[in-house]
Amino acid sequence: WQATMRLPLLVVLLAIVQAPSAIAFQASISRLPLGSPSSPSSFTTRSPSLIAPAAPRHGAAKLSSLSMNLVGSISAAKVAIASIAPAMAPLPYAVAAIVPSCMGLWKSDYGVSYGYGLAMTIPGILTLPHCVTRLALLHSLLYIAYGVRLSLFLLYREMNIPSMRAIKEKIEERVKARGGRLKRLPFIAMCGFLYFAMCAPLHIIAKAPALPPAAAPFIALGWIGFAIAAIGDAQKTLAKVGQPNRLVRSGLYRFCRHPNFTGEFILWTSSAVAGVLTAIAAGTLVSAAGWVALSAVGAMGMGYVLCKAASGLEARQKDKYGDEPGYEEWVESTWAGVTLPSSS
After folding, report:
1. Percent of the chain with pLDDT over 70
2. Which one of 171, 173, 223, 326 has the largest count of C-beta atoms within 10 Å of its C-beta?
3. Could you read off the pLDDT of 260-281 as tens digits, one per residue?
4. Please, is 235 exposed, middle or buried when counting C-beta atoms within 10 Å of its C-beta (0-12, 13-18, 19+)?
């Protein structure tokens, strides 16, 4: 029963999350000008006169009516989303981080896979109506894009790659052997806190009346890191179709042995740095000290996780492929990416 229902339930869950993100995105880009960080009532939309044609002909009148109805729906969506987290109150963000982590009670790895993706997507959606600047909007969209992309990628792997399902089942069996589900709660709580901390830059950047010039390159760098991670995941997955034991050396892997981990490291580090720079420039380094500290904790915590994961994969690859022709040459001509210092 679990094997039959797991994937349909995940598809429904992801669809529920993606629908408001699409609505919120349209709501945010339709705003002229961008609204106040704390007052949904200050949001403004294009007037119907800007949408409707001057002299409707044929089906134009019907199109105009549909356009105005869409604008009304978008306005209602903005107010609804903003009302969930008025003035970006911390509690909804904490819930958005902790509840997805509890998916680990269902399947142990879900808390750090689908739960991780949802814990980035939902806070990004909650932040969209509060973005004061377009750079802040791009920053919030980065969280949404990362979470949705990760969740869909993981869902694709689980549905289409038997070896990945086998690995997940082995992990679940080992976890079950250690005891009941309640024993997972401490780890789930730590994951929830880490996700909450990783979203702290959203609070700093969204509410800033203006972002410093120094923050813009780091937001752009975050998108570059997102692209590197996404391309790395896609290239590795496609290369292993039909050849699950193949060592991937093409594409980005010609230059970096772990581009997915490295790209994600760049993303979250850049987001935290942009948040700290914004707080300094806005003069809120003291008043927003809690969010600044959480930004640092989130970046360092996830940075450690990514470095440890890359180091572990580096060791496993050496054990598995070390005797293959060309392996040593590939290692010498490429960058390992973000890894922990070798103990040797």
Report:
1. 74
2. 223
3. 999 999 999 999 999 999 999 9
4. middle
